[in-house]
Specification:
Length: about 425
């Protein structure tokens, strides 16, 4: 290479020296620190992925059976359409909305799990409600929500959701904030098993929330990442979504099959928007495809094939429901056992908020300093907001974790 060519190439890439190092992802960074830790007693209660009683990832037997069936039927590896496999999409929507859904007026596409669904939904709102349109997220919420919707050009606002003073739902604050939101704001709601708090409204409280959103003509955006995984009953976990639909809301739904089917790496989900007519559906579908095509062209097919195969086969569907309930039951037993072991360790705190919560996480009320002490002294890795991923607990480590938690919380408040 000549000197002039080398200089030109170097000059063309000089902008790279100005690229700053970005902050690490909070959760994935903690997971990396756990992997690098050499303490034999280390415990990972950070990442939101299911683990069995031995602390190992668990592939659902119904998922394996569905994969075998797919191989036997010689499923091809062709591209999916831009909007995905619509047979899968229809089954996924029935799973969420119930059998009575009017599919003829529901615009729905397959997405890259729930994250992709949120991003496609955010892009759609940014185009047709306008950049800078307000979207209200619960405080706290899943950490990725904020960045997703900011990157879509939406104006991210927060509504009160969880009270650190009571370690429970701040319904009054939530309703006041929703009442004061501008007309037509997008309101994001967690369908069940709120992340990170595990604190869900009752059905009666959901009715009050529905009324508050109606009063401002709000655009309802449900994020459903844990249906079936929360209570063990997929029908029960869909109650809030179905209530809003019955109340007349034209909801948007981001749906993920990562947690409830254990398909974390398959990136399998849907985005759906209830419309008023077949004509509206056609228009919305055309715009969703225009968003997807230059972004990732079409979705992967393996995960959706698994879900489609399992939900369309009576025996596999029944097996799946039982296995999903099994996961939820183990998570629930760890929730109860953790509180029991805290009491046995001598803790005088009221930990009832932990047993009142639901889903994968326990929002303990521990401070950032307490969490840092747990990591420094006991090699227990968790998010700095005090959230414990209960899937990381088992009979072999729950007592160790409980004693450590007691040691860092003794004599200190766990309420904000």
């Amino acid at each position: 290479m000549s000197t002039s060519t080398a200089t030109s190439a170097s000059s063309g890439m000089s902008f790279l020296s100005e690229v700053p190092v970005g902050p690490p992802d909070a959760i994935l960074g903690i997971a990396q620190a756990f992997r690098e830790c050499t303490d034999p007693n280390k415990v990972n209660i950070c990442v939101g992925a299911y683990r069995d009683e031995n602390g190992s990832p668990w592939v659902l037997p119904s998922v394996r059976a569905a994969e075998r069936k797919m191989i036997e039927t010689d499923v091809k590896k062709e591209y999916a359409p831009i909007d995905g496999d619509q047979e899968f999409v229809k089954l996924a929507l029935q799973f969420a909305y119930g059998a009575d859904l009017d599919y003829a007026t529901t615009a729905a596409v397959q997405t890259l799990s729930g994250t992709g669904a949120c991003r496609i939904g955010g892009e759609f709102f940014g185009r047709f409600l306008g950049k800078g349109h307000k979207i209200y997220l619960p405080n706290p919420t899943w950490g990725n929500h904020v960045n997703i919707f900011k990157d879509c050009g939406l104006d991210v606002q927060r509504y009160r959701y969880y009270s650190s003073e009571t370690n429970g739902l701040d319904l009054a604050g939530m309703l006041e904030d929703l009442k004061n939101a501008p007309e037509g704001s997008v309101i994001l709601l967690h369908a069940c098993a709120h992340n990170p708090t595990g604190c869900d409204p009752t059905l009666e409280q959901w009715k009050e929330i529905s009324d508050a959103v109606k009063a401002i003509n709000g655009v309802v955006f449900f994020d459903s990442a844990y249906q079936g995984f929360a209570s063990g009953d997929a029908e029960l976990d869909a109650a809030a979504l179905r209530l809003f639909v019955s109340e007349g809301h034209k909801v948007t739904l981001a749906q993920s099959f990562a947690k409830n089917f254990g398909l974390y790496g398959e990136r399998c989900g849907t985005l759906s928007i209830l419309t008023n007519s077949a004509e509206e559906k056609a228009a919305v579908m055309s715009q969703l495809k225009l968003i997807i095509r230059p972004m990732y062209s079409s979705p992967p097919i393996h995960g959706s094939g698994i879900v489609k195969t399992a939900l369309s086969d009576d025996a596999l569907r029944a097996q799946y429901y039982a296995e999903c309930a099994q996961m939820a039951k183990r998570i629930g037993s760890m929730r109860t056992l953790l509180v029991q072991k805290l009491k046995e360790a001598g803790s005088e705190h009221d930990w009832s908020h932990v047993t009142d919560q639901i889903g994968m996480f326990a929002f303990t009320g521990m401070s950032k300093e307490m969490v840092q002490q747990l990591t420094a002294e006991y090699s227990i890795f968790m998010t700095l907001d005090g959230r414990i991923s209960l899937a990381g607990l088992n009979d072999g480590n729950v007592e160790y974790v409980a004693k450590a938690v007691h040691s860092v919380t003794e004599g200190k408040s766990i309420c904000g």
